[in-house]
Structures are given as C-alpha cells and as structure tokens.
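Input structure tokens:
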C-alpha cells in the first residue's frame, strides 16, 4: 500500500522518512508488476503537477519545505522529515550501489559530467552510471527533443533516472515522458547536481529547524532563487490559504 498520505493544498503528500522512501523506490525497481514511479517534492510554492493523464506513472510525493512539514504536523500531530532531492539522494545512491542499479541523469551541464562520474565511482562504486543527458531549457520544453531523449533512455534499460531540470517543469516532464523512458523510477531533483558536484552545500541543521531554508538559498544563489522564493512562493501560499479549508483533513 505504500506510506500513509495526508491531503495538503489538494495534493496527497506521503508521510515517510528516507528509508521508507528508498524502500518504495527499491520495490518498484524489483517488482515489474508495479507501475513506474515518480518521486516528486511537495512544496506550497510549486504545487504538485496534476496531469490529466500521467502516463500510468504513480507518484511518491515527499515533504520538501517547512510549510508543508508544519501543515503535516498540524494535521497528524507528528513530526515528519523533509526529503528534498539533495537530502534523499545519498540514501538512494547507497541503495543503488548495494543493489547495482542502472542509473541515468537528465539535467545539469556538459561540464558537470566528468565531475559527477568521478564522484559516483568513488562513493557509490556499485552504481552503473549508464548515461548523462544535458538538455538546454529549450530542449526540455521541446516535445520533439524530449521525446528523443526518452527514446534514447529506453534503449539503456535504466532502473532509475535522476531528473535535474528546472523545478517548474521537472514533474511535468516526468509525467509526460517518464513512461516512454522505460525507467522504473524517475526522481525529480532539480538541485541535486549542485550537491553532487560540490557547487552547493546543504543548509546547516539549525537553518532547517528554524524554517529558514529559503533565506539560506536566497543568500547563496540570489539570482536563481529570487523569482521562485520571493514572487512565486508568496502567491502560492496565498492560494493555499484560500483553499486549505476545502482540501485539508
């Protein structure tokens, strides 16, 4: 049945920790009777992409930011960990190395390929890193270019695809092209390349406990974070407050 869920701002958010999420991912990879799985973040600033037809892909929707965590605590009375892609990727790759999964990456830049490959081989030697695609934003938005990437992935017999494209489009890309890739699991993780290649560091624990992750990111990457956190986030929060009475348990 998978982890329990709670309804937040119109989205079924799964309540689990990193080990539980990895168990769901591993079960999907090993049990071909299960539909492919998209592992996606639940953030109030970027609501879950409700595709009219998600191509038969199930969703594991994880708590990413403090506002969703606070809402889940209010509804359930319990604390739930935040599992952003950068937080989860180490556990996922540990399992991938132990079980020798075939892993592909979509996103990042061509300059990051060698750095990523070296780190994966050094820290997760059991991982078969079978390909790294680095499409531009225009290519990610192009149905023809994205379909071509998906077709190329299908020939690699990939277990897990780490999708590191723009946050605003990553889940829609997975829902639209994920099944065509033939992958068992697609992990939406827009900032993971920054962590894996050493370009960014995780926020200190005290920052997370204080709910200041967005401010931390804004200080480190003002250009990248300003639109997302200062414009889109407040607008989404207002919409969430207006709709919460209808959606929350």
């Amino acid at each position: 049945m998978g982890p329990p869920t709670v309804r937040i701002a119109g989205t079924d958010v799964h309540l689990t920790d990193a080990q539980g999420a990895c168990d769901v991912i591993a079960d999907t990879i090993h049990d071909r009777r299960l539909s492919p799985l998209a592992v996606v973040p639940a953030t109030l600033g970027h609501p879950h992409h409700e595709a009219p037809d998600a191509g038969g892909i199930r969703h594991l929707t994880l708590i990413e930011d403090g506002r969703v965590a606070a809402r889940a605590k209010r509804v359930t009375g319990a604390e739930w960990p935040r599992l952003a892609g950068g937080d989860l990727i180490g556990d996922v790759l540990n399992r991938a190395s132990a079980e020798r999964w075939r892993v592909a990456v979509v996103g990042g830049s061509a300059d990051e390929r060698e750095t990523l490959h070296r780190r994966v081989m050094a820290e997760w030697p059991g991982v078969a890193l079978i390909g790294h695609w680095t499409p531009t934003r225009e290519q990610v938005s192009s149905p023809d270019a994205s379909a071509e990437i998906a077709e190329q992935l299908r020939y690699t017999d990939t277990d897990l695809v780490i999708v590191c494209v723009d946050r605003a489009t990553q889940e829609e890309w997975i829902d639209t092209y994920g099944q065509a890739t033939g992958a068992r699991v697609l992990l939406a993780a827009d900032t993971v390349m920054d962590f894996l290649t050493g370009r960014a560091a995780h926020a200190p624990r005290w920052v997370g406990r204080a709910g200041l992750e967005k401010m931390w990111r804004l200080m480190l990457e003002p250009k990248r974070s300003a639109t997302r956190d200062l414009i889109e986030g407040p607008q989404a929060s207002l919409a969430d407050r207006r709709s919460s009475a209808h959606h929350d348990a």
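The CA atoms of residues 137 and 166 lie 8 Å apart. The longest helix spans residues 222-247.
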